[in-house]
Amino acid sequence: MPNVANLQNVGDRLYDEALYEAAKIIFRFISNWAKLAVTHVKLNEFQSAVDAARKANSSKTWKEVCFACVDAEEFRLAQICGLNIIIQVDDLEEVSEYYQNRGCFSELISLMESGLGLERAHMGIFTELGVLYARYRPEKLMEHIKLFSTRLNIPKLIRACDEQQHWKELTYLYIQYDEFDNAATTIMNHSPEAWDHMQFKDVVVKVANVELYYKAVHFYLQEHPDLINDLLNVIALRVDHTRVVDIMRKAGQLRLVKPYMVAVQSNNVSAVNEALNEIYAEEEDYDRLRESIELHDNFDQIGLAQKIEKHELLEMRRVAAYIYKKAGRWKQSIALSKKDNLYKDCMETCSQSGERELSEELLVYFIEQGKKECFAACLFVCYDLIRADVALELAWMNNMIDFAFPYLLQFIREYTGKVDELIKYKLESVNEVKAKEKEEKDMVAQQNMYAQLLPLALPAPPMPGMGGGFAPPPMGGMGMPSMPPFGMPPMGPY
């Protein structure tokens, strides 16, 4: 009925006196939906409370009804209320804590999952659901992170994963957040769960801290030695090869990284060269050792030669002689080759040394050893160094003229050829001089002829009785006597 009573005060007094049925009638009459919703809650009329809260549309009212529904285990109605609360960033954590404090984890997760589809869904909902997965549903965490990585508050989720020790998910979040140093560290510290070879290779090349490269080498050496070369090939451009070799040498696993060292040997790093040469020497792989020495010279050459010059394998001793030759120690190289009867190497070394004394000493050595064929071969290999008189004297005194005769023929042929060239050059020079003299004589004769013809071109003096004194010849330009036109005979008494 129409009245002038203050119904709001009456309703509040009825509510305070727990006369909820009467208060409900008054609040509905005056359309105080917020108070009506709370009154319905007191009467355990939760559906009506939700309807009233929807009309009130107040965050405070929604929370009161929601929390009451949770306490009454009316989770369907609580979810309806919760969806209207979690769209507010400030109220999200309060709802989450209320659910968790009462152990309603599944219901809270269901609420958050429903909230993902709301038009007003914000980053906080996605992040909070990720935190809940990390705590209560870890099997769903990775899928959630991959689906919504761009809508997550990654630092907050990183803290949650770290607390819950979800290392694989934590690594993925670090990568998404471009924290590659932390990602690499996490993988190495928690490898049973977090390590994946392809992923680690992608991460390690992007780290900023150089020390992590060497930590990764130690890590692979201990846990995945079969893949260490693959890792080293990825970071080869960023690591100090000398330091890597030192790490492997101290660990006694130098041969393990042989493929890596072969790949980077083109940089000609001393430590790499020495390590590979050491491995080749131990494996008696003389072909690869010789190739390494020829292409890469940055190593202790004399030390390696001294190490292998007494090797039981002939080819290894031959490599030692080659190193001495390459280092310019001719006498040591020749002596080592002599000891192994490698006469061809001796001759080649003498020829490359350019020293006449060594070549002639080698000839004497071959005579003393009775190596006539080697004597003849040495004469040709060291042809430019050996003096002909010395070669002939040694051959004549040791009855080896027959073996020196090919050399003698070659020597005579060469020198006769040189004499022929000199004679030819001399004749050409004489002919050039004669031609030059003839040219000069012709030029002088031509000049004399012009001098004789010049007076004939001048006009004659006047005849007696023909007039006054001497008339000078007509002058042309520049004060010179005028000359007849080209092709015309000179005018005169003749």
From TrEMBL:
It holds the Pfam family Clathrin. CHCR repeats lie at residues 1-78, 83-229, 232-375. One of its GO terms (biological process) is intracellular protein transport. It comes from the Eukaryota. GO terms for molecular function: clathrin light chain binding. SMART domains: CLH. InterPro entries: ARM-type_fold, CHCR, Clathrin_H-chain/VPS_repeat, TPR-like_helical_dom_sf. One of its GO terms (cellular component) is plasma membrane. This is Clathrin heavy chain linker core motif domain-containing protein. It comes from Salix viminalis (Common osier).
